[in-house]
Structures are given as C-alpha cells and as structure tokens.
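Note to self: the last two entries modelled the partners one at a time, which told us nothing about the interface. This time every component goes in together.
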Amino acid sequence: MKRNWTRREFGLGAMAIATGAACSGAGAAQWERKESGLAFVGSAPANEPGDGSIHLFRTAGERWTALGTVPAAAPAHLLLHPTLPVLYAVHRVDTWNHLPRGVVSAYRVDGHAGRLHLLGTQPLSLSATLPRHAVLTGGATHLFVAAEGGGIYNLLPVAADGSLLAVSAIHKEFGMEEGGLAKPAAPNSVALLPNGALLAADAGLETLTRFTLVDGTLRPTHRLRVHRGEGPRELALSPGGRFAYTTGAATGELRRHRLALGNASDEVALARRFSSPLAPAMAYVPDAISLLQV
Amino acid sequence: MIVTVSKDDERYLQLRRTRNARFPTTDADAVSGIELCETADDVQAALQRAVSAGKRPTVRSGGHCYEDFAVNNPGGVLIDVSKLNTVAAAPGGGYQVGPGAMLGEVYKGLYEQAKVNIPMGSCYTVGAGGHLSGGGYGLLTRQQGLSADLITAVDILTVRHNGTVEMRHVDAHTDPDLFRALRGGGGANFGVITAFYFAELPAAPRHLTSGGVTFPWATMTEDKFIQIAQTYGHYMATRGTERDTWPMFTMMALSHKTERGRINVSATWHDMDGTNDLRVPTEFLDLFLKCDTQVAELKDPQTSAHAPSGGRFQMTPCVEGKHRWNTKPWLEATVDGNSGGIKGYGSTRGKYKSCYMKQNFTAAELKKMYAWLTRDIPEVDTGCVISVDSYGGAMNRPELAHSTAVPQRGSVMKLQYQMYWSNPAEDAVRLKYFDDMYTDIYSANVAGKHAGTPFPGDYYEGCYINYPDQDMVRYPFWPELYYGTGKLYPFLQGVKKKYDPNNIFHNSMAVRT
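The predicted structure of the combined assembly is written out below.
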C-alpha cells in the first residue's frame, strides 16, 4: 500500500494529483501516447482564487520537461477525454462572472506543440459553488460535476469536438439531521461505473450514491451510508469496478466497498489515517491505492 | 388540486415565462415543468416533490419579476401560486391576503369588505407575493407607509436540513427573525409564502384627484431640463417632508427625447376625509410656472380632453392656481387603470434600474441625464424613461428600519429607470446603453470604488430590491446597495442559514451565505 507519492512516483503513475505547498488544491492528468506523454498539473493558489494555472509537461519515462503554463481560474481537478485530445478543468471557485457558481473549462491538447487551446468555459448552475471533481459519462457524452459548496451535481453535454455545452441537468441534494446535529450535503468525488451508472461520494450526507441518467435527468437510484460520523472524501474504483475505495473526510481512514450492479455494500476498513484532508485526490493503480499529497 | 404542466403539454410554452419576454433567456434555461397550485397544501406538496427530486424550485405569483429569478431555472420546477389569491377577513381578526392576489384584487377586496387599504403599487396585475415581501410601495406610501410596514404575520413554507418541507406561521413573537426578513427582504430568499396577515389597516381614501404640467421636448434646453428637475427635487426635499403634504403622490417622467415627446410632472391627491382640499397639489404645480412661461400662452393647451390616450394623469397649462384636475372615487381611480399588462404576457421586453435619493438633484447629475436622454441608440427607437416618484413621509420613520428589512428610511425621491422593447435582436445594444447611462449618471456625485452606483451616502440610499438589476452584482458591494451598509445584510444571511440551510431558494440576487 502506497502513501504520499513523490513527484518522481507521480511521473510513473497513470493518473494522480500533484500540488505545491502554496496551493490550496490542484488537479493533474496525463495524456499518454506511444511516442511521448504529456502531463498536466493544475494549481489554485489558496489566497488568490481565480488566479490559478495549468502547467504542461512532456514526459519520457521519469523525465519531465516543462512546456509552459496556461492561466486558469482555479483548476482543482483535471481529466482527459477518452478518445479526443481534450482536457477538462474543474475550477474550484464560489463565484463566476459575479454569480454564485463554479465553472468548468475544456482545452484542446496540441500534443505535438505541447500546447493547450481553450475550447470554452461553461458556468455551472447557480448555487453550484466550489466544484471539486468530475467524471465523463459512458461514451463521454456528458461531464458529471460534483459541486461541494452548493451540494449540487451538474451535468453538461459534451459536443462532438469535446467542448462543453450549457448545463442540461441538475440534482440538488439536501442535508441530514441526526442526533440534534445537522450537516449540509457536500458532494466531493465522483466515478463512472462499468455499467454506465455514476457513483458519488458525499461527505455531508455520509453516503455513496449511485446516479443513473434517465431522459437526460439525474436520478439517485441507490444510497449507502458510509464513514458514519464523517462521510467520505475521496473515491476511486478498482479497474473492473468490483470495489469502490473511499477515505474518511475527517480521519482519512481508507475503506473498501463491494459493488454489485453499481450498488455499494459490504463496507470494509482497510487502513486508518490513510489520507489527510489536504490530500486532493485518490487513484487506483495496479496493485495499489495511491493518494497524492505533496 | 395541483395541475402539473410538463414540456410535452401544449400549455408549457405559455406558462413557463413571466411578463418580461426576455425570460427564459433560452430554451435551455427554462424550467422542466410548472406546478399550478390552488392551496397552501398544494404548494407544500409541490415544493416537497421538487426538493425530494433534487430539482430547484422557483416561485411565481403575479409574474412581474424584473429579472430572471423565477423562470431561468434549467430543468427546475416553477411553483405558480397565482391561484392563492384570497383577500379576506383573517381567522381571529384582521385581514388575510394570498400571494397570488393581484394588487387590483387586493384594493378591491379590502375596500369592499371594510373600506381599508394596503399602500401598494399602481400596477393592477402585480402579485402580492413578490410585492409585499420586497417592501412594496405606491401612491399612498407617503401617507400610510410601505406595504411591508403593515404586515403582522406570514405563513411560509421552509425546508429543513433534511429536506422536509414545513409550514410556519411567523410573526413578531414566533420566528421573529424570519418575520422581519420577510418584511422587505425580497421574495424567494427563504421559502414560499402562502399568506400575509394584517391586524389593522388604514382607511382607504375617498377620492383620488390628479393633475399635472407638461413640457415639450421640442422646446427643451439643458437649462430648462435642470430647472424643472431641480424644482421638483427641491420641493420633495423641503416642503414635501411636511406632514400636510403626505397625502400627495407626485411623479416626474423624464422621458427620452422624441419629436413629440414631453416631460410630465403630475400630482395626485388622496382625499382622506371627504374635503378634497387641493391647496397642496396646487401649490406644488404652481412651482413649475417659472420653468416655462410659454406654456401658459399655448392656444390649444393640453387639457384633460387632449390628454394622451391611456394616460393616467391629465396635464394642464401651467397657469397659476388654475390646474385642470381630474377627480374620481378612489377605488375606481385605483383599479380601472388596466395597468401592468392585464391582457396577458405579450411580447414586451423590459429592463429596469432604481435609485433612492436623499436630496435634490445636482446640476452635474442632471447634465448627465439630459445628455443620455437626448442621445439615441443608432437605428433603434431608444424610448426609455426615468420615473421620479415622491417618497418619504410615513415610511421614513427610522424605527421601521429595525423591525423590517427595508433600510431606506431617509429618502425623498425614488427613481425607476425603465426601458421597453419587443425585438430580441435589440437586447444587447439596449442593455448596454441602459447600463452605460446609469453608470455615467451615478458617477456624477459618487467617486472612488462606488462610482457608477447610488451607493448609500449623502446623496443616495441605494436601490430597491423589488426593482432588481443584475448589472449591479458586478460590484462586490451590491448587497449594500439593496440592504444598506449597516447590519441588515449580515442579519439576513443569518436568517438564510437558519431557515434555508440547503440554499434551496436561490437566484442571482438572493441573499448569499
């Protein structure tokens, strides 16, 4: 079991998160090609929201070569289109164009020149603030975004060129009351299940929720209470989708959940204090669950 | 019974919008369905259904919202409360008004029942829900206060942390913080209102008498424009603050220059005791004699018989002490105006801005107004108007700022900037012109980071939340424009967190937490 990757290890990984000490959050993705690879690292300064950037690197084995930097609002999470040379950035902001909402961007990747070209930026729905994570749906038809601040999920259609269209569906969660205490919803990590359903971790509701797309709308079809008392923060699936791994939002405890037809069950604790709240993301790589915290 | 109208229903396109044809902005911005409710129980069920389904609920009563708050709601649910239009005696005494009651229905219902009145606006079809919760003002505000000043209880549906919808009856003793917030804090911030209550209401006037003076743009100069406006403003800031003038409502319509256009000044006197003594409005209109002596020499003076079609006020030549008054029984004058688009939603697009003024106009700001009102948008019939309403009087009692959510208790005039058009292709140029005009005018007396806005200070007292203007959210201090620089906005934020912890009820200018 690995803990805290180094930058060297990150270069070897398929996907991970890297961030500098001055950053409040960051996302990274690596676009691999046979002849070379490109890696993207997002950074969002804690004290200057909206003044982040995406750094491009060409990778060759363990060697990383900086290619340049693209200004970006606050890229807390990056992900790549499965077939198109398009990179998506989820910006963790609470205001965009003076309205209370987050924003996502799409960039065309010029692999030969090592450049990013902005395809477009789409605001999330009102109240969908502080988005933290996203995943592409099956066939990459939509981007599914978790907005932690507003307790909202947004669905944005993906155009043929990979650019993002306006939000087409919203699911607004409400919080929970228990033992005289109340917590707001806080969706913070999402994943695509092999059967096309979507899995979401919510630290506020303390749940793993399976969503299905029905006539373009998001419908929660199964919920499992997990990490009772703290809720899950990070979420990663095993490659075959048999297991979901989550970390506790407060303790960092790692747990495994068996998935059957996309429904989570059989919560098993694997490791205590696996992560800290500063760890921005978790990924599953062969034979290991890795969590990046630099 | 709830009538649900979904996208495949032929009624959907008609019912998904409000009276401002600008909204929904695009099909993608529209709601997925409309829930037409008849009772408070219906509203509770519809709201619970929306919340449980993860859909954003927005609310429509009269459909007069100036911005997109109700109908730009992608995939969400529009809860229509227009059928909750009860105007009746309340259980236990007093009066009850449903949020869907149109103001004209409220005037008529209360007068018929008890010869009483709520000092509300002049547009017949405006819904009580938005009007009352945003403060509410009109022709009788100087005499009787704001609509919200008179509210003594509210029934409202709120949503708990766990998503459960619950009904609250709030007043000065039960949930007093929420009660205060609902008296002017703006609609759709905290929940869905299903009834307003009034323990006591003032008597309705006997008659309403109106008259005015008019000045053609054809002979207008900048100096004359300034003289007219400052004559009006000086009166409102001085003599107009005295108690005997409060039954008078005045309006100055600073219209955009056209070949046959005019600037009109009107006075409306509310006869409260049957004497219909018109000395105060006569004194007011006489002041304008100095502004244009040629008016008295017109061979065919504009009289009531020659008043513009559909005009509410009758303009007369400016002859000292001899104004042509038009007197009607109060109810007839109040509800037969057919104002506010009673015939339907139509194709009118609109944009609005506002300003509370604490003192007379300065020459500097009037020069800017004159420049903009004489400047045309190329190839567009510019057609905008700045309506300058009288204000103050009974609603300027300072203590009301602490028991309601309307902090503006020191103004003497209230301005409403209005622009109307019907061609969607003109949206961009009109909105830019309007924004540029407003920003320039409010750079005359306001400097520094607040320039371009009527930020509360020596001259201004901010803006009216019932005339919402999304252009203002570009200023980080926009809540201070609408809710003042004191502790009101933080108070409203606390109320929001407490009673709408999930931020179910939100829009682009909602209270933010």
